[in-house]
Amino acid sequence: MSKTILITGAGRRLGKTLAEYWLTQGWQVIAHFNTVCELELHPNLRTVKANLAEQKDVASLCQELALAGPVDAVIHNASCFIPDCAATDLGKHYEVHFNVHVKAPAMITEALQWAPEAAMVAITDIYTDIPNERFAAYCASKAGLQNWALSMAQRLAGKVRVNVIQPGPIQFLPEHDEAYRTMVLSQSLIRRELGYDAIVEACHYLLSAKALTGTQMRVDGGRFVANRYDQTFRV
Ligand SMILES: NC(=O)c1ccc[n+]([C@@H]2O[C@H](COP(=O)([O-])OP(=O)(O)OC[C@H]3O[C@@H](n4cnc5c(N)ncnc54)[C@H](OP(=O)(O)O)[C@@H]3O)[C@@H](O)[C@H]2O)c1
Question: Origin, by domain of life (predicted)?
Fold first, then answer.
């Protein structure tokens, strides 16, 4: 019998690539999306729409997922990445980030039925461990997702393995200009955009590696350990 994976934020970009990959592996894919779903129709694909910032959307998504049968794998990928300076209502700004990154994954995970030897991956960011004053709500809520995932590794032990991927710069957004791209890549050791395949590989590994649970894997081209400070000083 084929296996089932749930991927959130699978309408486009990385989530779409993840969904396409697991379809090619012969899995049943439940692809959650928010506004737009660019995935092509496929007999093994089921799409579910929900704004994870909205309580009522999450409640009806959970009802639907509770009836979907056991899942073998989940990737919590949905994410909002809004600078704090764009917030007109700071309370709402934090609420949206924490709803999408922490509350919705918790509600979804609670609603699911699990197949034997199931596994879950939460996609966070290297910025969970590096402060960024421009994206404080994003960083804080992704750090929340990461810590929540590790708690789930404890709570679901023996039933679901839970691991975390911390991506670095995998694919720039269209609004990122050349100067920004050059600056970010100059801070990595591999010095190129990693591409979605780097995260697909890491997800594949963590979902299939039977000995791994409660781990955090940086997939960042070495950006986290790259020198962030001028080290030309002399003693
Ligand atoms: N791109 C990078 O270089 C990078 C770096 C570090 C970490 N990451 C992490 O890697 C993952 C994938 O990156 P990405 O660039 O593909 O992410 P993304 O495009 O920013 O977001 C992923 C998906 O989340 C959905 N989403 C946003 N707001 C939502 C809401 N309120 N309710 C439900 N879904 C919502 C988006 O759907 P809509 O577009 O329809 O809203 C989008 O398809 C994310 O978790 C991201 O934080 C990415």
Answer: Bacteria
Find out whether the beta carbon of 125 lies less than 6 Å from any atom of ligand 1: yes
Domains and CATH numbers, the chain: 4-219 (3.40.50.720)
Contact 200, 17 (CB under 8 A): yes
Pocket of ligand 1 contains residue 34 by CB under 6 Å:
yes
Q: Is the CB of 13 under 6 A from ligand 1?
A: yes
- The answer to whether residue 233 scores a pLDDT higher than 80 is no
pLDDT for the residue numbered 44:
98
Nearest CA-CA partner of 82 in 70, 69, 68, 94: 94
Q: Is 188 in the pocket of ligand 1 (CB under 6 A)?
A: no
Residue 144 host element (H or E): helix 136-155
Cα 200 to Cα 204: distance, rounded to the nearest angstrom: 6
Neighbours of 209 (CB within 10 A): 13
Please identify, by atom number, the ligand 1 atom nearest to the C-alpha of residue 77: 45
